[in-house]
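In the lab's daily routine, each protein ends up as an entry in a very long ledger. A line of letters takes care of the sequence, but it says nothing directly about the fold. The three-dimensional part falls to structure tokens, numbers that each stand for a local backbone shape. The outcome of that step, for a single protein, is printed below.
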Amino acid sequence: MKKGIIVALILMSIGFAAVTATLTINGTINLGFNKNDYDIYFSRAIVNGEIKSKELINETKKEITFTTNELKTIGEQYILKYEVTNNSRQYDAEVTVNCEPADAEAANEYLKSENSMSNKIIKAQSREEGTLTITLKKAAIEQQSFEYTCTITANATERDDAEEEYLTQNTCDIIPTPNLGSDGKLIPVEIRNDGEVRVVRTTDSSWYNYCEKRWANAVILNDGVETEYNPGDTIPESDIESMFVWIPKYKYKLWNVETDKDTTGKHTIEIIFDTENTTEDPGKSCETPMTSGNKGSCADEEYMTHPAFTSFGVNGFWVGKFETGYREANDKASAQQNNNEPRHIIIKPNAYSWRSLTLKNMFEAAYNYDSSENRDLDSHMMKNTEWGAVAYLSHSKYGIDKEVRINNNNAMKTGYAALPNTDQSNYPGASGDGSNFNTAWNTENGFTASTTGNITGVYDMSGGAWEYMAAYVEGKLNNSGFQDEDLGKLDPKFIDEYDKESTVNSYKNMILGDATGEMGPFNKNDEYKDNVSRYNNSWYVDFSDFVDVTDSWFRRGGNYSYGALAGQFSFARRAGAVDGTYGFRIVLAPSN
């Protein structure tokens, strides 16, 4: 067991002046197991609900400085939320943070302090959130200042052999190779920070490195482009029709199979890239159930191959880098077109999202995007499980590992990110919008709306337009435009089907991996600005209404006005009707 000191100058000025607090970790916490050192540090701070990471944490990640409001009213609280990161690759840590005032007798007369991080297991290469809450118990006539000192105690735990065997497989060498198909349409590219697109060889190290959070990108050119682009050439945006990002096959560690008993909270999702499907191996792995409401033999702490890959039998898929845009649109209104012609599809930044078409037209436009005789790329409308696969990868050490920033552009143009000071309060309509409140994809702020935190990731998974999924309650087509005979002709791999008894909060009817039920427990909030009652999940308070027989189709991500309710873990229901704020996304799944 090792112990380190955090000198926490929490100067509690009661009733008169502002409170200034400085937390400093002196040095690295070294647990010294087989020369595998821990580096445990503060990675984020939230003061009274406001994220203060960049302003508060210096480059060493060991110092946090902030100023609080004065405490005047009995019961008033000063709250610091902090994240502790464990950088070890092989060892978990049992971490406890204790904060005590130097003069406990005097401080305890006025203040009550509570710290939530006690015997908290922080997995290797992950982080956990703790909370320090100081409450005013008694008013003071004269100014009172109290200095707190916090200690962090960490006990290293080596992973068991079964889990260690899985983890040692998790190297960048076995990431499933991006499949470009055989028709030559997909061109491998490197996208530079300014948005410049350059052709690469598939063997070039610049193409991708998931361990460095650089995901593989590829483009499809417009019909009629005569230029033959070679490695090293720059492709002008005017020649590009669509941009895609590779999601390699992986298995992930289950944490909330029961949907309402999550004791982990939001955390780094543990992912292992692999081309083989998991099998029944109790305590270690389980076979992927792939059906609504069925957890099979799966249990928390076991690994499971994500169903997005098993349903198509592929080692990965290409997801549209942006929401699907309408080629001819030059404003918000002209992108509202109810047809199913794939010739209108573009998937690029700064495009107007294609909206106001029936769900059936979305499905058919996406399906017919691959017009080749043998459907080499197997294009289709994104499914709920595929959304889940992208969302989970985003919240792993291979992605941004936090909630992506909302695209709050009220024209529903693709690839934008709300500015850091934009209102993200928990109310639909509260988020700022328009060109003065957001920046484009190829800016430092724009990167925060990507699943990687850089330009190589997937955009528009929070805000922009709502995105309909090819996912519905069995037998309940409602206003989608589909007829029973239409779905009877479909290969089941193209649509996720949910239990016909589903209700707005029947999260147990999830398909494991779809990023719905696993985000629980869920709470209901009736205090929204628009007076609409909604369920929220426990990760980022994202909107979380499950599908039911009336509103039988899933929609994901929220729209530009949803503020904190939007996010890659946001989901809701709708009848499948045409709507001016609803669009869709395309996925390509070339066979192995």
In short: The chain has a mean pLDDT of 83.
